[in-house]
Amino acid sequence: MERSFKKEVEALRLGAGETFRGEGILAVTKALLQSGVSYVGGYQGAPVSHLLDVMVEAEDLLADLGVHVETCTNEASAAAMLGASINYPLRGAVTWKSIVGTNVAADALSNLASPGVLGGALIILGEDYGEGASVIQERSYAYAMKSSMWLIDPRPDLPTIVAMVEKGFELSEASHAPVMLELRIRACHVTGEFPAKDNRRAAFSSLNRIAGPPRFDYARLAHPPLTFVQERLKIEDRLPAARAFIREQALNQELPGQYDDVGIIVMGGLTNNVLRALTRLELADVYGETLIPVYVLNVVYPLVPEEVRAFCASKRAVLVVEEGSPDYIEQQINVELRRADIRTRVFGKGPLPATGEYNSEVLIGGIAAFLVETRPAGLDITAVAGMALAAVDHKGAAAQAVGELPARPPTFCTGCPERPVFAAIKLMQRELGPTHISADIGCHAFATFAPFSMGNSILGYGMSLASAAAVGPNLDRRPIAVMGDGGFWHNGLITGVTSNLFNKGDGVLIVMQNGYTSATGLQYMPSSKASRQGAAPGMDVEQTLRSLGVKWLRKVRTYSVGTMTKTLKEAMRTAERGLKVIIADGECQLARQRRVRAQDAERLARGARVARARFGVDDDICTGDHSCIRLSGCPSLTVKPNPDPLRTDPVATVIESCVGCGLCGEVAHAAVLCPSFYRAELVRNPHLGERLMHWLRRLVIGRLGGRAEAVS
Ligand code: SF4
Ligand code: SF4
Fold it and tell me: Over the chain, what is the mean pLDDT?
């Protein structure tokens, strides 16, 4: 069950004279509609999932505007969608998480960027770099440079973000090149407001279709010998056209400052961080008025040499604030200044670290170091250095006062259907010994943390089986590849399963069939039991595997730990060669709870009976060895002080958040642990028979001298 975005969809309907208030990523969505797009698409991934989710939910509004929306099965299909803008004057936008999504899309992007576009083509990238990122720490910048696509990195305030989306389409059309717009997590979630405009219907769309295909034009294909011409066009025509547009439209900003013999050149997306750091050094106010001049690169690629030279010419030194490595921007600025024989010293990596996120604290240190080194005329450097120290020196004292804190790695949700599978793998390995586990992207990657600590490699989304291809033939036992159903449809079906069958591979594949792409916010996918429109899309993992020729295939309910363990042992031991697939079937608990809670609330409101399962541990029986916790890892299964004054070991306990998935009992049973677990049912609005039974039980227990709880 996907989240509802009704409120957000209403905001998309705002028109001229009204004020839009909300998050950055929603502002991007509104800006797309104000720009007259004909089509949008993408593949979900933090921090841009919201964009697509809202678009999909705004079906009616988009139909009114004639905008076609596609929830693509991966980023490659999203990038290929932009092919519509090669031949036709259609504006289109697609979105995904970068860098991983851009990697998947790379082939289509190269083939798009080479012939170039007629209609504006915009790629909204969730630049997942820095604190809280969940992907490899690489930058999209390299893609922009190598393919001659322009990269916008807007200053994170809503009016700038919206303007950059709108200008992004114009830039794309003026230079005939695709444009990427990157948003870090904070830019996606920054809140603010901007004056809305009316949504625009595109000149051509599903409401006003183009009459027939264009005349055949070989130049629209990324195919030799035209690719040689296109390479020249990129550099000789499109690049100058883009630079001219950026200059004429003043897409980059210059913030003047009093100490103008030095300056800061910043990637637009880091502007707020720089201004915050300057504020803490008392060199800017909270409204963004700065004493140090700042040149804001809302377009980080291409740079505009005239602007760079104009900003630097009168300065002794500039600091380039460019997050991550390599220092592409710093190198280009050095080259431009040397070419123009401008002697401004360029600082960047050195005062600032070569890797990692540039948060306010890092920037305070870096900017202070730059200023101390360059000594701007009239600035009290001693005071700046003192403030920089004061801004960070409390951290050491705080750390000492708090002491060492335990690590808190992310984990599966309470009652997650994927956790039992790893409990079963643990039990299987106890008997058969450890084996190589090819992990994948998705919630199941939480198993790489304690208490499971499983997974020898992760090579990308849907890549687990493919990454085991050379492991199996070189190891004395079969590897296990774990893949979600999301990963299966994204990539695993072709790169993993088809390749394995084609090469007559061996090994075990576990497909976690939870019904959604859960880790990105519970989106529907081809094998979901429902869709936005209600009916299931109708594709099925099991049927697909059988149709490809998978012979050894078992479907096991994930919570049945005993059966899962037995099936795993069978898959590992069987003499039968070939791919062995176990479909671990169990609906995502987060989705299930959202559905069940809504249903229960509705039943309670009309006075109907509602029962909820809960598990518990009998304090008297629990021995306190906690093997159940080591095998489960459920956050609702924890410890409490032993109520028995003669025993000191804490006992296991199940807390209020338990969703009654039953894994505790299953694990205790499958691992032959102990009989301390019990299952109870909390019944609200019980029927007459249950009330009578409860009354009878209380009576008997009371007669026997026990305590009886009141019935609700
Ligand atoms: S979102 Fe669903 S699949 Fe992911 S950890 Fe939570 S319950 Fe498990
Ligand atoms: S039954 Fe056990 S594993 Fe399942 S949610 Fe409750 S405490 Fe967690």
Answer: 93
Ligand 2, atom nearest to 634 Cα: 8
For the chain, the farthest-separated pair of C-alpha atoms sits apart, in whole angstroms, at: 100
Q: How far is CA 115 from the centre of its chain?
A: 31
How far, in Å, from the CA of 485 to the mean position of ligand 1?
12
Q: Where are the alpha helices (DSSP H) in 234-359?
A: 239-248, 271-280, 305-312, 328-339
Provide mean pLDDT across the span 470-499.
96
Q: Given the structure tokens 């219907």, which residue do they identify?
A: 201
Q: In what order do the strands lie in the sheet containing 121-127?
A: 68-71, 39-42, 92-98, 121-127, 179-183, 150-152, 299-301
Alpha-helical regions (H) of 606-653: 627-632
List, for residues 89-141, the tens digit of each pLDDT value.
999 999 999 999 999 999 999 999 999 999 999 999 999 998 788 899 999 99
Q: How far is the CA of 632 from the centre of ligand 2 (A)?
A: 8
Strands 121-127, 92-98: pairing kind = parallel
Pocket test for ligand 2, best of 632, 640, 677 (most atoms within 8 A of CB): 632
Residue-wise DSSP of 452-498: T---SEE-STT-HHHHTTTTGGGSSS--EEEEEHHHIIIIIIIIIII
Q: What is the pLDDT of residue 1?
A: 46
CA neighbor of 317 nearest in space, from 291, 348, 339: 348
Token pair for 499:
């390749």
Predicted confidence (pLDDT) per residue in 561-616, tens digit: 999 999 999 999 999 999 999 999 999 999 999 989 999 999 999 999 999 988 99
Q: From the CB of residue 46, how many other CB atoms can be counted at a distance below 10 Å?
A: 18
Tokens matching residue 196: 């809305």
- Lookup: tokens for 184: 């870090």
The Å distance, Cα 84 to ligand 1 centre, comes to: 36
For strands 610-617 and 677-684, give the pairing. antiparallel
- Closest C-alpha residue for ligand 1 atom 2: 588
Backbone phi and psi for residue 277, each to the nearest 5 degrees, phi listed first: -65, -40
Query: Looking at the CA of 614, which ligand is closest?
Result: 2
- For ligand 1, whether the C-beta of 634 sits within 6 Å is no
At 699, list the tokens. Answer: 């009576």
Which position has the token pair 């120290």? 389
- Quote the radius of gyration of the chain (alpha carbons, Å): 30
Q: Are 97 and 46 in contact (CB under 8 A)?
A: yes
Q: What is the pTM of this model?
A: 0.93
CA distance 332 to 318: 13
**Per-residue confidence band for 712, with pLDDT thresholds at 50, 70 and 90:** very low
CA distance 306 to 328: 18
| Choice from 3, 49, 134, 418 to test ligand 1 binding pocket (greatest atom count within 8 A of CB) | 418
